[in-house]
Design goal:
The chain is an alpha+beta fold. The protein contains 4 helices and 5 strands. Keywords: Ribonucleoprotein, Ribosomal protein, RNA-binding, rRNA-binding, tRNA-binding.
Length: about 130
């Protein structure tokens, strides 16, 4: 018997999340740690589970997530997108709920590269008239 699972990839800034959705009782594992332990003290972390809340499927799946790159905030948003995409694999009809909530949109904003002669990407050295 094959393992029933659904997969979605999410990206945000430089973070990449691989989300595996398996029928279960709501256990969430991020990089082999419990979800609460991995995002300890980060209030925004609950927003990563927004797709489950919007579709009303909270507690119906076990989530196995691997995430790398970026900071915690980017990782949370990457998980959110990956989870939404995995839910679409599970049931394409959920698109009607996920799309209006903006959960299927990839946030394409990336950090602009630093240019030579500048302090940062655009911040120029202080101008001195004399």
């Amino acid at each position: 018997m094959a393992l029933e699972q659904y997969y979605g990839t999410g990206r945000r800034k430089t973070a990449v999340a691989r989300v595996f959705l398996r029928p279960g009782d709501g256990k969430i594992t991020v990089n082999k740690q419990d979800f609460q332990d991995y995002f300890r003290g980060i209030i925004k972390a609950v927003s990563a589970l927004e797709p489950l809340r919007v579709t009303g499927l909270m507690g119906r799946f076990d989530l196995y997530i691997t995430v790398k790159g970026g900071g915690k905030s980017g990782q949370i948003d990457a998980i959110k997108l990956g989870l939404a995409r995995a839910l679409l694999q599970y049931d394409a009809d959920l698109r009607a709920k996920l799309k209006p909530a903006g959960l299927l949109t990839r946030d394409a904003r990336e950090v602009e590269r630093k240019k030579y002669g500048k302090h940062k990407a655009r911040r120029a050295p202080q101008y001195s008239k004399r």
